[in-house]
Amino acid sequence: MGADLKTRTRAARLGVDLDRASPRDSLIAWSTGIALMLFAFFLRVWRLGQPREFEFDETYYAKDAWSLLHHGYVPKVVDDANELILGGQATGIWKDEPSMVVHPEFGKWMIAAGEHFFGMTPFGWRIASAVAGSLMVLVMFRLLMRLTGSLMLGVFGALLLTFDGMHLVLSRLALLDIFLAFWLLCAVAALVADRDWTRRKMALASHDGAWGPLRGLWFRPWRLAAGICFGLAIATKWSAAYPLAAFGLMVWLWDAGARRRLGVRTAVLRSALVDAVPAFVHLVVVAGLVYVATWSGWLLHADKYEEHLSSTQYTGFVEEGPDCKHVSDDDARWPTATEPDASGLGELGQSLRSLWYYHQDLYTFHTHYLNCSEHTYQSDPRGWLLLNRPVGVNVENDIEPGDQGCEAAAGSTCLRQVLLLGTPVLWWGGALALAAAAVLWIGRRDWRYGLAVVGAITMWWPWELNDTRPIFSFYASAILPFLIIALTLVAGLLLGRGREPSSRRTLGTIVAGSFLVLVALNFAWFWPIYTNELLTRTEWLDRIWFKRWI
Question: Exposed, middle or buried, 95 (CB in 10 Å: 0-12/13-18/19+)?
């Protein structure tokens, strides 16, 4: 009885309820989450193959994905490849020489999965994005259920994600950003699950002297899952390395806080050894191994890259003067390009060194080569949460009356557009909620608000530091999940902790419910310019609220 009492005391200190089953594990919770996911999928797959053309950077990623699927690496294509592909030809348009692709490969492998099942068609290269975007709704629901313990708040946040225009459009395009956001959200959800798992283990484990519970805590399955997800996120876009670093520090502090609650002195220092070191292995080392593994196709064809790309426009790159003159040293080559071919493990080492030199070229491209470039739709990261400059990924102008069902007045025309724009009510409300979360994190010392703030900052701040090159507002799509976490937590604060009817809970329900309805109506209003629907020019202008949106 004494041991049981000690266990319950530790559980109480850690906020763990050993008796009550979690509501998130109920059949109702799982059924609700799956229903939300299927609803989101329906919206994202509706007329997914339209328009039947390459939209924005699909022209790169769709072809890269098909190349990886059929060649194992990305070769160059003939000049009229787009026209041939849209005409139904998917063979005989690739050359033998590899192409200089400037993003990691895993996101393109995900696009390739859709192309494998549905062919080299617009639907084929977009379906993986629709699946990933829909799965995000389920992951968001499960994460919010874990954070709040409320089915209603889980539905609230999942519907917010479902009704965001930027998320919808990215779920209907063969771009990389939806996969980055998906794997990043999965990683964060796994870390939160690990936090619960660890505290329950600590409550049940024996107390090992001055260090606190140790047994059974060296291997943490949820933390391993997070490391894998972070690796896949970085293997989609490098920007995921920043939240990996930030959340890696957070999980150490979470563990240290748990040990402090159990009476461990100098808990932060002791946790650095018994928690932070294993966490580094689970997260950073595992993420690194996963990242390298996603380059397997490249490594198997390293000889082609050494032959054709070891001396490129980026190798030996120098940037001179205020006019950003680009200078390349024609004699600069990867050392591996002139080495005799190795064999066995030596060949693997040689290929890995070539991959390292290739990464140096990619880093030069991203940090220097684009600094003097400009793009019509580039935007300042400081205005992303306010939707300062959306991206037009496709437009068909000047559709005459009578053509395609256009019913414009005489002297006017119709148009179709796909605009990468978040749902304004959601993003503007999310910006306010994020500011509130920062205050509440400090004022209430509630780690959940910190989750939202740290996630948003780490996916925004790096772009603010590198805004000398063209960058686009849809990069903020990886911030969106953290805005929704902030919104949901603030909604939960308005509702209060009690489940019994009260004036506060009634008022909170009205406010949160009204916000969700406004988001849904706002989403419906912009639906035509998210999905390439036919609009008269007057109808289109009614949806372009600011000149910067044109």
Answer: exposed
H-only helix segments in 149-262 = 151-162, 165-170, 177-204, 221-234, 241-261
**328, 317 Cβ separation under 8 angstroms:** yes
| Residue 296 in tokens | 């397997």
Give percent of the chain with pLDDT exceeding 70. Answer: 94
Q: Read off the pLDDT of each residue in 226-232 and give the average, rounded to a whole number.
A: 98
* H-assigned helices in 262-285: 267-271, 277-280
**What pLDDT does residue 130 have?**
98
Model confidence pLDDT, tens digit, residues 55-85: 999 999 999 999 999 999 999 999 899 999 9
Tokens of 92: 């005989």
**Average pLDDT in the 132-147 region?**
97
Distance CA(120)–CA(305), nearest Å, equals 25
pTM above 0.85, yes or no: yes
Q: Which helix (H) or strand (E) holds 418?
A: strand 414-420
Q: Which long-range contacts (CB under 8 A, 24 or more apart) does 40-47 make?
A: 40/133, 40/134, 40/137, 40/158, 40/161, 40/162, 41/130, 41/131, 41/134, 43/162, 43/168, 44/129, 44/130, 44/133, 44/134, 44/168, 44/171, 44/172, 45/127, 45/130, 46/531, 47/531, 47/532
Tokens, residue 271: 């946790």
Q: Are strands 391-399 and 414-420 parallel, antiparallel or unpaired?
A: antiparallel
- 477-501 burial, b if ≥16 CB within 10 A, otherwise e? bbbbbbbbbbbbbbbbbbbeeeeee
> Tokens 């409300």, residue?
429
Structure-block tokens of residue 497: 């902790």
Local structure of 518: helix, strand or coil: helix
Residue 335: is the preceding peptide bond cis (ω within 30°)?
A: no
Task: Provide DSSP, 79-124.
Answer: TTHHHHHHTT--SS-EEEEEP---S-SHHHHHHHHHHHHH-SSHHH
Identify whether the C-beta of residue 291 lies closer than 8 Å to the C-beta of residue 231: yes
> How far is Cα 64 from Cα 54, in angstroms, rounded to an integer?
13
pLDDT tens digit sequence for 162-190: 999 999 999 999 999 999 999 999 999 99
What are the structure tokens assigned to 264, written together?
């461990």
Q: Which residues contact 247 (CB under 8 A, 6 or more apart)?
A: 187, 188, 191, 226, 283, 454, 455, 458
- Tell me the C-alpha distance between 32 and 86, whole Å: 39
